[in-house]
Amino acid sequence: MLANFDFDVIRRSLAYLFIDGMTFTLTLTALAATGGLVFGTMIALMRLSGYRVMGWIAGLYVDFMRSLPLVLVIFWFYFLVPYIGQWITGSSRPIKVGAFASSLITFILFEAAYFSEIMRAGIQSISRGQPAAASALGLTYAQTMRYVVLPQAFRNMLPVLLTQTIVLFQDTSLVYVLSIPDFLGAASKVAQRDGRLVEMYLFAALIYFTISCVASYGVRRLQSRIAIIR
After folding, report:
1. 173-187 burial, b for 16+ CB within 10 Å, e for fewer?
2. Which of these, 128, 132, 126, 131, lies nearest to 154 by C-alpha position?
3. Residue 2 domain-assigned?
4. CB within 8 A of 192, min separation 6: which ones?
5. d(CA 25, CA 160)
6. Which of 1-5, 14-18, 109-113 has the lowest mean pLDDT?
7. Where is the ABC transmembrane type-1 domain (predicted)?
8. In a domain, 169, yes or no
9. Is residue 1 part of a domain?
10. CB 116, CB 43: distance < 8 Å
């Protein structure tokens, strides 16, 4: 059975798969994780601010995003973002955003809902006595969050945040539905061009499996080191 396979197609396509495809995948993962973490922290602070309206808006956003399939959100923003750009700029026509920009916006908004819940749990894990002590020392709410609560919350939630980033790395493969040449999209193009679907999709699965396993092992090592420090 294996004699019918042409694994040399993988060797011939390595440069395209990794220089173009994997570079795009890692870039999208890094940018989406950074944007999602920043936006998710803002949402978490809104939910914990004590202002009922802000908490309600943030909670509604999180529930809304978490109830939708990611691939549907990708399609939705791909067609909606040009019209949002037209509305913001006052242009007479929908502006050209491009598949990368719309997919990046999609992942930031979608992942922010998950990062915000992780951050909210991390903030709530901090003893209430610490904010009270910071307030007694004259720190404002913003200063208390910046210098006392958030640094400890990030440390407590770092393993979970990194695990969610691994999930994000796997989810970025969905952008191939927009014909973006990420790693899976590049492998799919080669597979269809050369008629080697089995070989290319097996190779793509092996690469995703290897990277995710190595990253998960690194997270477990980090988690054990943080636990020892405590």
Report:
1. bbbbebebbbbbbbb
2. 126
3. no
4. none
5. 21
6. 1-5
7. 22-219
8. yes
9. no
10. yes
CA distance 125 to 139: 20
Structure tokens at 22: 């994997």
What is the C-alpha separation between 227 and 165, in angstroms, rounded?
20
- Could you tell me the residue range of the domain that residue 162 belongs to? 7-226
Residue 229 above 60 pLDDT? no
Longest dimension (CA), the chain: 75
> What is the Cα–Cα distance from 108 to 40, expressed in whole angstroms?
9
Under 8 Å between Cβ of 161 and 125: no
| Amino acid identity at 146 | R
Q: Domain count of the chain?
A: 1
Q: Shortest CA distance to 37 belongs to which of 140, 154, 194? A: 154
The whole-angstrom separation of Cα 152 and Cα 66 is 26
Ramachandran area for residue 95 (φ above 0: left; ψ -120 to 50: alpha; else beta): beta
Calculated CA dihedral for residues 196, 200, 205, 210, nearest 10 degrees: 150
Q: Tell me what the mean pLDDT of segment 9-33 comes to.
A: 93
Decide if 12 is inside a domain.
yes
Tokens 């940018």 sit on residue: 31
CATH code of the domain containing 114: 1.10.3720.10
pLDDT of residue 169: 95
**94 and 82 Cβ atoms separated by less than 8 Å:** yes
Percentage of the chain modeled with pLDDT above 70: 97
Which helix (H) or strand (E) element contains residue 215?
helix 197-229
Q: What is the pLDDT of residues 185-207, one digit of tens each?
A: 999 999 998 888 888 999 999 99
- What pTM was computed for the model? 0.86
